Amino acid sequence: MPFVVLGLGSNRPWQGMDSIELLQKACAALAPLLGNMRHSSVYSTKPMYVEYQSDFYNMAVCGQAEKALTPRALLSEIHRIEAGLGRNRAEEIRNGPRSMDIDIELFGSERILEPDLEIPHPRLAERAFVLIPMLEILSESADCIERGMYAGLVQKARLVGTEGVMLYMSAADFAASGALPVSRVEPDARGQIYDGKRSE
Q1: Residue 48 burial by Cβ neighbours in a 10 Å radius (0-12, 13-18, 19+)
Q2: What SS3 class is residue 39?
């Protein structure tokens, strides 16, 4: 089954739920789609493209795509989950505030270039808020992706740096508050969680 990495983000409350609660809801909804799903810590991040908005709360999840789950089918499920957590694509500002945003970063070795679906995500290399939580969970799951790709992600993360990305809630605390599986990798307070080495 293909190994999948998703990036999640939120910076707008919805129906009385704050961004952390919305991320917990999203993780719970994604769990049936991804076998052995693991999640990163949550990071507080400065907006990249539209600056005058609240900080985002970002994280990553990974797991094995369930049988018959294609990239297109996963995208449909993601859109359903986002809509169920208050996202309205017809009314939102591009790169503006949103209650939930879920991106497919990696889907096995798939290379897709379509108007509404690009895999790997086209802006993965420039986004510290994706690379940092992603490498947090990949440090224990790196054997699920190509060695060269993992090394490349580490290098990109070093080039991008950690500016504007701060650890907000550890994976353990996030799991405890939402009854979710715990990622065993814990970053330090500066969010420096990658060293270019694979866990054995």
Answers
A1: middle
A2: strand
Buried b (16+ CB within 10 A) or exposed e, 76-113: ebbeebbeebbbeeeeeeeeebbbbbbbbbbbbeeeee
Give the number of other Cβ atoms within 10 Å of residue 58's Cβ. 28
Residue by residue, DSSP assigns 59-91 as EEEEEEEPTT--HHHHHHHHHHHHHHTT--TTT
User: Which residues carry out catalysis?
Assistant: 87, 98, 101, 103
pLDDT in tens, 144-156: 666 566 667 767 7
CATH code of the region 3-178: 3.30.70.560
**Domain boundaries along the sequence of the chain:** 3-178
pLDDT for res 113: 84
CB 27 within 8 A of CB 180: yes
Q: What is the pTM of this model?
A: 0.82
